């Protein structure tokens, strides 16, 4: 049975009214690859546009909060925690962005975690594109989720 289609075949927001409230959490991750000089400017906070990572962090948090405005049929959620981390992988000229979204509610937060990562990565791209228009965003994925009927789920190490 398709959950986002009603009996008439029309798009439909899933009714979560009767679902039990539980603590729900999701962690997502993605990366952006750039030239070594661009990465160095970001790491050393020497970019002309200022603190690129701080700006991307705020953008990611705002993105998670706006997820329901961006994804059709996505429930607006009262997030209680959004956290982003930025890990520098100098040998591969990458910044790995991870997000944690959390709440106590009736539906999961995977889309919010993915949106937070995506918006943070897009912000990094936007702020650095003049230095490096060939940057590449990749590997955006959910790493794990907690809560709801399925409980705990984690990405298989194979991929």
According to DSSP, the number of beta strands is 5
Radius of gyration: 18 Å
Instruction: Please give the largest β-sheet.
Output: 5 strands, antiparallel
In round numbers, the mean pLDDT is 90
Percentage of residues in helical conformation: 25-40%
| Beta-strand percentage range | 25-35%
Low-confidence stretches: none
Description:
The protein has one domain (34-148): Molybdopterin cofactor biosynthesis C (MoaC) domain (Alpha-Beta Plaits, 2-Layer Sandwich). The protein is elongated and about 55 Å long. The protein has 159 residues and is an alpha+beta fold. α2 packs antiparallel against α4. It has a five-stranded antiparallel beta sheet with strand order 2-3-1-4-5, covered by helices on one side. The relative contact order is 0.26. The chain is 28% helix and 29% strand.
